[in-house]
Amino acid sequence: MGAAVVDSPTILCEASPCSNRSTAGSPAILVADAAGYRFSTANIMLGRAQKAIAYADTAMRISPRDPQLFLFHFQKGLALLLLGENDQAIDWLHRVVAAAPQWPIAFALLAAALAQQNRKAEAETALSRYFSLTGGRNRTAAQRRAQLPLDDPAFLDGARRIVVDGLRQAGTPEA
User: Fold this and answer.
1) Which of 9, 22, 52, 112 could form a disulfide with 79 if both were Cys (CB 3.0 to 4.6 A apart)?
2) Which CATH number fits domain 68-175: 1.25.40.10, 3.40.50.720, 2.120.10.70, 1.10.10.10?
3) What is the per-residue pLDDT across 92-132, written as a single tens digit (0 to 9) for each?
């Protein structure tokens, strides 16, 4: 069943009563949320952004009041950014920074998405917030690139081209 779960986000619903919102926060829902986050992350890393979005959407539907909902907003925003759907990515990433204003990576991705849309002033503001939260770490494009997870070409190509280049456009120095 393991491979089937990765290929079908609707299987998450089989572990819990998705239509019964009174169960939000129950162990079954928490397991589904954790599985959805892991599957969404895995699919992003494998270059399968559409599947990542499906897992994030399913997890958000299963548990719409989850206090960690911003993690699924982040997954969806990142996947949309990797697909080049920058306006939608910006909408989702704004939700993330509103819910988790101390999470640096959300501001980095928001800055990259804004820069990709030629919204330079907003990108610079988001980048400034990112730098203020990182304590001086990852201040250059080279440092950010070196910290990209995995070495899968499908993920790295998209991440380098979109995220790192977007950060550079927002004002991150190269070295």
Assistant:
1) 52
2) 1.25.40.10
3) 999 999 999 999 889 989 999 999 999 999 999 999 998 89
